[in-house]
């Protein structure tokens, strides 16, 4: 039976480590990291997302900055706020929208989401490093490291190739010297390719796509998927499952992340980590 990778616990440890470092930073140079969010419109899920980030920031000592703009704001208006945060020395990270022009306007040194094309480009280049790595794939790698999974020389399969998870996850595994294959919606016989992998990162968005028969005995399985499925027994009427069929896979894999409680809590922890890293780099604090 596979060992469970406890993302909730690891994320808590990381948040505690970050809080200690921030307290030290404040003590020594009188600076705390700052994270700015620009929110356009009043969509409830966006507001919840920002509120949760703010709470997580406060808990470790990161100062949040927030600008709320009306739904019909012009691109120029948004760009003006980005420019202000770019030059504000108390802001070390800027969260932005995935709109191309806006993405390009954020200073790559404050792009804590790691989505700026130049940061992605650097991630893809040999011998170069991005200023930031996107939070969810960074969280996947951190789980592999903290659970002592060897990556160098291993076969890895990433299922899904989105800009925010699959593609950067594959680049990171390759940088860590794995031999990487990417399985996507046009891949023929994905099960045969996946069965060769010592490490699987699944980021598809299809409930229980990866069956037990797809998995090499002893493999490390990182399940990024978060998919609601009907569950009349749950008070909400649904429950969340991953892209990997946990019941089957956990009997064959060596290590596996549960959903929820695996990769999910790591994403926000990595955002806090990127923001601290940024402040340390900008203020040359070791
Ligand atoms: P996306 O829809 O942008 O990308 C999905 C990818 O899967 C695409 O590249 C597509 O080619 C591929 N794909 C689709 N069907 C496939 C199939 N049958 N076989 C193989 N590949 C297939 O999704 P995303 O943003 O990368 O998110 C993927 C999943 O991860 C979602 O369930 C999402 O909710 C979850 N997610 C979780 C976190 C987290 O913090 N844990 C963060 C981001 C996304």
Short descriptors:
286 residues, alpha/beta, Rossmann fold, 6-stranded parallel beta sheet, 3-stranded parallel beta sheet, 11 strands, globular, binds nicotinamide-adenine-dinucleotide
Helix and strand arrangement:
Layout: E1 3-4, H1 7-29, E2 34-40, H2 44-60, E3 63-69, H3 75-87, E4 93-95, H4 100-105, H5 117-124, H6 135-146, E5 155-159, H7 166-175, E6 179-183, H8 190-194, E7 199-202, E8 220-223, E9 227-230, E10 238-241, H9 246-249, E11 255-256, H10 264-282
Parallel strand pairs: 1-11, 2-3, 2-4, 5-6, 5-7, 7-8, 8-11
Antiparallel strand pairs: 9-10
Helix pairs in contact: 1-10, 6-7, 6-10
Bound molecules: nicotinamide-adenine-dinucleotide.
Describe this structure in words.
The strands form 3 sheets. This protein has a 6-stranded parallel β-sheet. It has a 3-stranded parallel β-sheet with strand order 3-2-4, with helices on both faces. The chain contains 10 helices and 11 strands. It folds into 2 domains: 30-110, Rossmann fold; 135-264, NAD(P)-binding Rossmann-like Domain (Rossmann fold, 3-Layer(aba) Sandwich), CATH 3.40.50. The N and C termini lie far apart (42 Å). Helix 1 (7-29) runs parallel beside helix 10. Strand 5, helix 7 (166-175) and strand 6 form a beta-alpha-beta unit. 42% of the residues are buried. 41% of the residues lie in helices and 16% in strands. It has helices at 7-29, 44-60, 75-87, 100-105, 117-124, 135-146, 166-175, 190-194, 246-249, 264-282, and strands at residues 3-4, 34-40, 63-69, 93-95, 155-159, 179-183, 199-202, 220-223, 227-230, 238-241, 255-256. It is globular and about 55 Å long. It is of the alpha/beta class. The structure holds nicotinamide-adenine-dinucleotide. Residues 136, 159-162, 164-166, 183-185, 190, 203-206, 209, 224-227, 263-264, 267 line the site of nicotinamide-adenine-dinucleotide. The site of nicotinamide-adenine-dinucleotide has 24 residues, from helix 10.
